[in-house]
Amino acid sequence: MAQIDTLPPLRDVIAKHELSARKALGQNFLLDLNLTSRIARSSGALEGVHVIEIGPGPGGLTRAILAAGAAHVTAIEMDERCLPALAEIADYYPGRLTVHRGDALKHDLAALANGQRTRIIANLPYNVASPLIISWLQTEPWPPYYESITVMVQREYAERLVATPLERKDYGRLSILTGWRAEASILFNVPPTAFVPQPRVMSSVVQLRPRGTPEICRMKTLERITQAAFGQRRKMLRQSLKALGCDVQLLLSKAALSPEARAEEIDISGFVRLANTFDQL
Fold it and tell me: I need a surface site. Which of 33, 67, 111, 206 has the fewest CB within 10 A?
């Protein structure tokens, strides 16, 4: 295991503070500092960068980010048991770590970024990964306050984030929202054995880089269109889009889409056309 600092090994930190992972909080601790360092490095050079980290737990990834040269880390942790361990890291890196206790979904991350060069890096708790990522993609105004998102999630969820119509099983509303506003890629996979306790699924580190100028479209309309289309994904669009309460034949005609097509066959540009046409009608 690489020695990234002179703080105690994570196993010792966990034992000292009695930090057994809680399933209710979606916790799975990463103890391998080689792996946490790889995650930190995968976001790119960190010198001069402000990092927002969600769910640092005992601070393995936090230490790796700071050791990699991040100017400052703002961490949001819900579990108060982890705060003393994080305080030790803050003492070791004076003035470079700020910890907020609470629910990341209730924090204004744009305000925490405060106009700084900001990246989001995290081993996301499984139970909040989806709502967090969706909220980051829904950020207004766009481009957002962050340069990139580099996070660990369940492999299955990562595949949905990056899917295209070529991977129809995984392609859906999440894929469209992600691909519309960001370039998403799976960087590498992480086996269950890397965690304590071991989850039952493979994990992946995924990166999202915001598109500077995504195709013009109203977010709420795109979400409404994709909800209708994928709500009955096995049906043709002429049937599934009836939930919109409009003239579906006219909508599809003006959007230059076949009534016989299914949602999983339509690319992001096609859904953007559908949303814009719906608003025009």
Answer: 111
